[in-house]
Amino acid sequence: MSMYAHPEVLVDTGWVASHAKDGNVRVVEVDVDTRAYDEGHVPGAIAWAWNTQLCDTVVRDILPKAQFEALMTQSGINNGTTVVLYGDNNNWFAAWAFWQMKIYGHQDVRIMDGGRKKWLAEGRDLDPNPTQAAAGAFYKASEPDYSIRAYLPQVQQVQKSASAVMIDVRSPQEFSGEILAPPGLPETCQRGGHIPGARSVPWGKACNDDGTFKSFDDLQKIYGAEGVSQSNPVIAYCRIGERSSHTWFVLKYLMGVNNVQNYDGSWTEWGNLVGAPVEKGAAKSVGQT
Amino acid sequence: MKPEHFSERLVDVDGWQVNLTTYLLGDKWHTKADNVSPGASLARIVADTREDAESRALARAKELLSRTKRRV
User: Fold this and answer.
1) Which of helix, strand or coil describes residue B69?
2) Which of A30, A183, A215, A254 has CB atoms 3.0–4.6 Å from B35's, for a disulfide?
């Protein structure tokens, strides 16, 4: 079996159980449902709320650099800290946090394979009391690396020129236009469907039933069948950019795709644009028009 | 504390698949309902019994899913 391109970015639950309270390790839980942490969490873990702490709460954007630095400092993270991220729903928002940490140049950030689900299923210790992190020394972020982020003008260009593989990681029903948002969630766009030319690979296809990532060979089969290769540029999108950060992580760090970007504007941007081309209908196989 | 009796099962709610995750933590049962694809959280309930936790989570999921319109 082939190895992941960057196996060092994954740790298993056993490693976390042994190292969560090491001096140079900071474990952070990032959940879709921010109440999960309060039920009980990996002992020693702190929590970040994706909807208040990992975004600009005024402008629709990722955390500005100064706020990112403040969050790291308050979290007791310095530039040399090993940060281990995990969360619910197979590490959805853990991957979102990972992506932002890479934009700001944090060197050693990892994901706990299987996330919260695997930790629970294994019956490992949960601490119901919030961890109080002592603030660290001032954290100095790098200038943002936007090479891993796609903006609307670039996506529009790619859509016209077919110069990159676009992967829509939403559910098949969102892709087809049957529904405008994940079932049970508020509708936040005006039109349903997908960006013309995009391939449909729901994010969850990258995960095993226990929440861990599939093997390199399995991932290669899944994404290779949709035209993804290590050398071609890829843009992943979803609804608001968090599910696609999961796929971005898989493609870049597990499969070793050199040029992969997360379009975090995603469908809530494209599906609200006046005049933007939209395609409806179920996914077709590669080569089908 | 350690979670015990962890279980997951799929339930059909008005044509939508819902994933129910339940476990015992201390003396309380915790149930989370999420839609299977893409996996967004619909409900999180804490109750004294598994049955109560799961039925309340399903009721909340049903309420939220009823707001989703199918357009095709």
Assistant:
1) coil
2) A183
Give the residues across from B29 on adjacent strands: B24, B47
pLDDT in tens, A2-38: 799 999 999 999 999 999 999 999 999 998 887 899 9
Q: Which ranges of chain A have pLDDT less than 50? A: 289
Q: Interior CA angle at A50 toward A240 and A124, to 5°?
A: 120
- The C-alpha of A183 sits at a distance from chain B's nearest C-alpha, in angstroms, of 6
Q: Which residues of A touch B3 (CB under 8 A)?
A: 40, 120, 123-124, 126
Give, as one character, the DSSP assignment of residue A127.
B
DSSP string, A29-67: EEESSTTHHHH-BSTT-EEEETTTTSSBTTTTBS--HHH
Instruction: Check if A207 is active-site.
Output: no
Residues in Cβ contact with A92 at an 8 Å cutoff, skipping those fewer than 6 apart: A32, A203, A242, A243, A246, B39
The alpha-carbon gap from A79 to the nearest alpha carbon of chain B, in Å, equals 32
Determine, for residues B64 and A184 on separate chains, whether the beta-carbon distance falls below 8 Å. yes
Mutation for testing the A interface, residue in B20, B30, B32 having most A CBs under 10 Å: B32
Do the chains contact at B68 and A183, CB–CB below 8 Å? yes
Domains and CATH numbers, chain A: 7-144 (3.40.250.10), 147-270 (3.40.250.10)
Nearest by CB to residue B2, choosing from A89, A126, A182, is: A126
Give the global pTM.
0.96
Q: What single letter denotes the amino acid at residue B63?
A: E
Q: In whole angstroms, how far apart are CA A121 and each of A13, A166, A167, A209, B21?
A: 11, 34, 31, 11, 10
- What span, in angstroms and rounded, lies between the C-alpha atoms of A242 and A213? 17
Nearest to A175 by CA among A156, A158, A204, A196: A196
Question: Is there a contact between A204 and B38 if contact means CB atoms under 8 Å apart?
Answer: yes
Kindly provide the ipTM of the predicted complex, given to two decimals: 0.93
